[in-house]
Amino acid sequence: MPPILLLTTYLLIFLSPPKNEKTYPIGQIKTDKGEILFWLYDETPNHKSSFMKLANEGYWDTLTFNRVINNFVAQGGCPDTPAGFADSPYLLKPEFRPNIRHVYGAVGAGRDNNPQMLSAGCQFYIVQNKKGEHRLDNKFTVFGQVFKGMDVVDAIVAVKTDSTDTPLTPIKLDVNVLNLTAVELKKQGYSIK
Predict the structure, then answer these.
(1) Contacting residues for 177 by C-beta, under 8 A, at least 6 apart
(2) At 53, is the secondary structure helix, strand, or coil?
(3) Rounded to whole angstroms, how far apart are CA atoms 129 and 126?
(4) Domain residue extents for the chain
(5) CB–CB of 148/26 below 8 Å?
(6) I want to staple 144 with a disulfide (CB 3.0 to 4.6 A). Which of 34, 79, 107, 135 is the partner?
(7) Which residues lie closer than 8 Å to 175 by C-beta, 6 or more apart?
(8) Residues 94-138 pLDDT 10s
(9) How many helices (H) and strands (E) does the chain have?
């Protein structure tokens, strides 16, 4: 076999990515301040599938981070109004998990004060308090964890806001689901356990 053909065959066999390599759905939020990537928990299947469905439909791509509070959360999605989440496409039953808590970078589902603690399908937040927000545990469902882009979240909550914690300059959302392999995730700073 000629050397060039041997080299080409070697490269095709050994350097090509494996076919059918397992991928993992990763939440992605792009803003003008940068990109945020977060793991979606299998332990909260309804919230995970809801997030993926709305992201794949482009639901959030005309919306903003509408409530940002330094040392608390960056919240986005449907309008956060005194009337509650009347514009949410649906509500979700809570999926509280004792091993998934409101730590720095936790991604949770917003809700109003409804007694069943139902989550608004459209509203999500990211915990920005470095000590966490454990008073929210078992009251709001956490369905993800940021592993890249907390510097972006820090920048978002530092913007100037009005009296309702709405940024004076809108921070637009571009929300997607990326399907990444374990190798691609490692390059982004996340290792599969």
Answers:
(1) 25, 26, 27, 28, 40, 51, 52, 55, 56
(2) helix
(3) 9
(4) 27-187
(5) no
(6) 107
(7) 27, 28, 29, 30, 54, 55, 59, 60, 61
(8) 999 999 999 999 999 998 888 999 998 889 999 999 999 999 999
(9) 4, 10
Please tell me the total number of residues recorded for the chain in this structure: 193
Cβ proximity of 157 and 69 under 8 Å: yes
What CATH number has the domain spanning 27-187? Answer: 2.40.100.10
Q: Which residues contact 104 (CB under 8 A, 6 or more apart)?
A: 127, 128, 129, 130, 131, 132, 150
Please list, in sequence order, all residues whose beta carbon lies within 8 angstroms of the beta carbon of residue 186, skipping any fewer than 6 positions away.
192
Radius of gyration of the chain (CA): 19
Q: What is the pLDDT of residues 162-178, one digit of tens each?
A: 999 999 999 999 999 99
As a whole number of angstroms, the distance between CA 133 and CA 135 comes to: 6
